[in-house]
Design goal:
Layout (H helix, E strand, L loop, with lengths): L1 H14 L2 E3 H7 L4 H13 L4 E3 L2 E3 L11 H4 L4 H12 L7 E4 L16 E4 L2 H10 L7 E4 L3 E3 L4 E3 L1 H8 L3 E6 L3 E2 L3 E4 L2 H12 L1 E7 L11 E5 L5 E5 L5 H9 L3 E5 L4
Parallel strand pairs: 4-5, 4-9, 5-6, 9-12, 12-14, 14-15
Antiparallel strand pairs: 1-3, 2-3, 7-8, 10-11, 11-13
Helix pairs in contact: 7-8
Length: 258
């Protein structure tokens, strides 16, 4: 529940410059002391800027990235269902590229075969736990710099690693989407997605419903470059999904848990 409060506060600041303690208490069932405690913790993570009476968006010059450990707990059940459905598309003899993220990491729970080219440390840990005696998919880990904040391998060398392989499928996620296509938190991440997209036969974007209402500045592939969108149902996204289908994207809706 604590992480859901974090998410609601950061989501509010995505659209507003400031959130006061009193305003937060109106939509969170928390005391003034509890709200201030959350504000202080988010400020320590450099996700907000503490000011008198509340919190503000971080200064625009900062490249604010929400830590992987926090993102991984937001809509975790939804992300897990999406990953399970996505894994059903993978056949035993396929080569599959996976761009690491809090959504695609759940693929490690369900992939049992194929050759995986990944930059996700989390997926490697999950597969090592699932197959301690060997077996399972063959895994090729991209070289490059370790981004401990995002739990991935990144940088030019990682892009070159992905470029060395032609894949049957590629699974990607991103921070947000709009009418033109994908959006991500920074240019290096968007660049990695472009490189993966250039070297696959089918590009599959996995996004839970919250990505339809988030904002990011680094533009990724356009809808015309994406073959499949796997998402969960939210009536607020209905019109946008119709527009995405009209752009030629196959949309797979994963039912919500009963």
């Amino acid at each position: 529940m604590k992480n859901d409060y974090d998410r609601q506060i950061l989501s509010y600041l995505n659209d507003h410059e400031m959130l006061t303690t009193e305003a937060a208490m109106e939509f969170l069932p928390l005391s003034e002391v509890s709200v201030r405690r959350i504000f202080n913790r988010l400020a320590e993570l450099n996700l907000v800027r503490r000011v008198r009476g509340g919190v503000r968006q971080p200064v625009r010059e900062q490249n604010i990235r929400i830590p992987y450990f926090l993102r991984g707990q937001w809509f975790a059940a939804e992300k897990q269902r999406l990953a399970k459905r996505a894994a059903e598309l993978v056949k035993p003899d396929m080569a599959v590229a996976i761009h690491g993220g809090s959504t695609t990491s759940f693929l490690g729970m369900y992939l049992n075969h194929g050759t995986l080219i990944v930059n996700s440390l989390s997926i490697c840990r999950i597969l090592a736990d699932r197959f301690p005696s060997g077996g399972g998919p063959d895994v090729i880990l991209a070289g490059g710099s370790v981004d401990l904040h995002s739990d991935i391998i990144t940088g030019p060398e990682a892009e070159r690693s992905f470029a060395r392989y032609r894949t049957d499928l590629a699974f990607i996620s991103a921070c947000a989407l709009d009418e033109r296509g994908l959006l991500d938190i920074d240019s290096p991440s968007a660049s990695m997605i472009f490189r993966i997209a250039e070297n696959t036969d089918k590009l599959i974007f996995i996004a839970d419903h919250s990505k339809f209402r988030r904002k990011a500045y680094a533009r990724g592939p356009a809808w015309e470059e994406i073959d499949v969108l796997i998402t969960d149902f939210d009536p607020e996204n209905h019109e946008q999904l119709k527009e995405i289908r009209a752009r030629g994207v196959e949309v797979i809706i994963v039912p919500n848990a009963e």
